[in-house]
Amino acid sequence: MSVPRVPAPLQSPASPQGEARPVLRAKTIATRVTPEELAEVEAAAEGAGKTLAEWLRELALKAARERPADPTELVLAEVSALRYMLLNLFHATAQADARKLLAEFLSPEGPDGGKP
Questions:
Q1: Closest CA to 44 of 31, 55, 53
Q2: 24 CB contacts (<8 Å, ≥6 apart)?
């Protein structure tokens, strides 16, 4: 039987005194590991400054909430980045050409380079 997944609120409704009560977690997730694996996991949790339960909960929820990359989104992002680079290149080229034309126009020889 499947149980629907409904995210639990981070805080319980406020008590009459205005204090928020912590969420009571009633469900458990169990898994089997070797003694070596347990030592690795405990060391990682300790390195993060968290209890084993906190570290495992955060890691599991982060993985569960991660959305997979959409290939279409990735291609569109690459096309957009390429467009941005080309626009910058064309803009820089146009500015350089405009400066060159302006310099020729304002030169003492005139726009034709002093030719009659």
A1: 55
A2: 12
CB 75 within 8 A of CB 67: no
- Tallying the residues shown for the chain, one arrives at 116
Rounded to the nearest angstrom, the gap between the alpha carbon of residue 22 and the centroid of all alpha carbons in its chain is 29
**And the tokens for 105?**
């126009």
Which residue reads 């569109």 in tokens? 76
| Cα distances (Å, whole numbers) of residue 56 to 38, 114, 116 | 12, 80, 84
Q: What is the pLDDT of residues 37-72, one digit of tens each?
A: 999 999 999 999 999 999 999 999 999 998 888 889
pTM attached to this predicted model:
0.44
The pair phi, psi for residue 63, each rounded to 5°, is: -65, -40
Q: Is 44 exposed, middle or buried (0-12, 13-18, 19+ CB in 10 A)?
A: middle
Report the C-alpha dihedral over residues 34, 30, 10, 13, rounded to 10 degrees: -140
